[in-house]
Amino acid sequence: MTRFSIFSLAANALGGHKSWGPTWRDAAPRAAYDVIIVGGGGHGLATAYYLAKVHGITNIAVLERGWIGGGNAGRNTTIIRSNYGLEGNTAFYEWSMKLWEGLEQDLNYNTMVSQRGVLNLYHSDGQRDAYARRGNAMRLNGIDAELLDQAGVRRLAPFLNYDHARFPIQGGLLQRRGGTARHDAVVWGYARAASNRGVDIIQNCEVTGMIRAPNGAVVGVETTRGTIKAAKVGLAVAGSSSRLAAMAGLRLPIESHALQAFVSEGLKPIIPGVITFGAGHFYISQSDKGGLVFGGDIDGYNSYASRGNLPVVEDVCEGGMALMPMIGRARLLRSWGGVCDMTMDGSPIIDRTPIQGLYLNGGWCYGGFKATPASGWCFAHLLAQDTPHETAAAYRLDRFANGRMIDEKGQGAQANLH
Amino acid sequence: MRLPCPFCGDRDAQEFVYRGDAAPARPPSGPDHEASMFDYVYSRDNLAGLMREHWYHAQGCRNWITVTRDTRTHEIFEATLAKDAAASEPKP
User: Fold this and answer.
1) How many angstroms separate the CA atoms of A255 and A239, rounded?
2) pLDDT one-digit tens code per residue, A97-124
3) For chain A, which residues lie within 8 Å of any Cβ of chain B, measuring from their own Cβ?
4) Which domains does chain B carry?
5) Contact criterion met (CB below 8 Å) for A76 and A87
6) Which of B21, B34, B42, B53 would you mutate first to test chain A, the one with the most A CBs within 10 A?
7) What pTM value is reported for the model?
8) Rounded distance between C-alpha atoms, residue A148 and residue A173, angstroms
9) Please, what are the domains in chain A?
10) What are A259-294's pLDDT values in tens digits?
């Protein structure tokens, strides 16, 4: 594949951009691999890439039901951050942030990582104290965090509704290294880099069943493109984890819920970074194309429909109007929904399953995108070494049975189970 | 989405509180109570397709209703009062 550089860009520009080849190799399935990764989203492709790069395992197939990046990797709101306060989360998300910071050089692909800052607003004394505590926990873990008072927030975002009668803005917790990345480019970048190292990326290949050995171990998968064998099968299919696990007779602590996102018409630059409302569930950033990208809560009932319902549209827009009335005249361009794995404590799972040969990466709830690099890194480690990576050691499947939940925000499927 | 409450008729889903899958039943205490309670509280079938689930009509008649819904399309097939089903079950 062409190595991207200023020279390759210039040469192709002079040639009228007629000689660019495909970015990655669209493979046909072979009969057997060392590792099968089910799910050609960001997490699955990142897993394949790090398996090849870090662990030297290149006989890998990534199976994708539709086209790569067509699921939640293409439906998220592209925010990257590591502003977590609980042990088990801080080191993992910071590792992800460090990988984001070097991702473009590593992949030789422009993933448009933009560290424009993530600002979480607080609206009460209690919330300020909670944010101060979270910021301190971050700084103790070597992560940047700044607690801003109202004047500090005004300097960054003078357009907010500071004197809202119910939820006046008192200040915010700012992570300057947070920001956004281009979600599709992340998928394509990982696909290209994995493909370059010999990984087979197989699209339009839906897994329909698991092949079991007499001892119960998973030794391959049945697909719409035939039977494929492998010593290890890793699931990276958040949204459909329960469906795939059920093929192996496994029940998970996961519910599937629809989460919506929205984008407005393109506007001139007005929102400097990512801003989250602390008194409701609303967060917003502005894409490089100018659209305001925002989102809020899950719809609130089990759903495998990749679309949302109107009450949440109303709720999100109310949050936006309470926070920044200036966007009230902007027209909504599109809204869409993705199906999310909601775990019971709101934290992900990267672990072996009780079934030999079957590994699970799922349960990403509201926030899988920011975790893409570290999720791939840690899942690759698990698949190669059979032991959890140290930064993901808390994301165990059995933590609900032994009481080691990670209830960072209390945002599982329902808020009463942890 | 609208839910056909057997008492009130078709009502907006916003009037209801969602509880989830109607299938799990609280396990009786026994030697394996810890494992069965874990299963009851945390594990899910998470069906893609027809699912019986409990909704509470909080801003209406305040009945618990059992709704049969397709989780892929939100099509509603049946809604009955949960207390009718409970009354017909044998008492432990």
Assistant:
1) 8
2) 999 999 999 999 999 999 999 999 999 9
3) 240, 242-243, 246, 251-256, 300-305, 309, 311, 344, 400-401, 413-414, 417
4) 1-24+47-83 (3.30.2270.10)
5) no
6) B42
7) 0.95
8) 6
9) 27-109+182-253+345-400 (3.50.50.60), 118-178+256-343 (3.30.9.10)
10) 999 999 999 999 999 999 999 889 999 999 999 999
